[in-house]
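Good morning C.,

I know you're traveling, so I'll keep this short. The sequence:
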Amino acid sequence: MSLLVKSGAELLDKKLKEVIVGAMNAGSFTADACVPVFARFVYMRNKATKRLTLTWLQELAEKVIGCPILEFLHLFLRGIFDMVADPTLAIRQSALAFLQSVLPKLLAVNNHVVEEAIDDMESLGMKVDFDKILQSLVTTMEHPDPFVRKVAMYWMSRIVKAHIGAKGESAGSRLDEDEFDTKKEDDDDAPELSAATISVRNSLPHVLPGVLLR
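The tokens, ready to paste straight into the viewer:
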């Protein structure tokens, strides 16, 4: 009897995922109507709830067009990192798999010419809060588990590198007038910074002191 109940519950969960994802892709259901609910479940202690929540977040991240879950990532990111140190192997593996799959999508917010990148998220009206994401990563760097700290540092370095990747002038370098005129023309032709890059750059003065103190 218990096997039948388990099988029925798994089938129901699968169908619910299909319905919700389909409705979100069709525009008849929005991410803000359900993702914040899952964000709360991430912090619950019940292991079965954690496992189920992770499967839903993974499904939404992989199958919803435009990956709107990124807009709410700051709400539950710290909880996902906590799961990477969970005593249960299945939870640790699922949490790490989610982090590995969502990071490239997060980095693609600033890159429209990347393989498997998400096309122009900003045109979809999505605003990823990099400030709060970076703050969560700084907090996670205090985690007692060394592997969790390592993964958080990796996330931080990848995000900063993606948005602060422009090559600056070396210290002590100088330009003559002709070089300055050429550089000015190049700067005029440079693409406008994306909202994501501006968000990351504006948040650095707040998060860097916390990183340096680790």
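Safe travels,
E.
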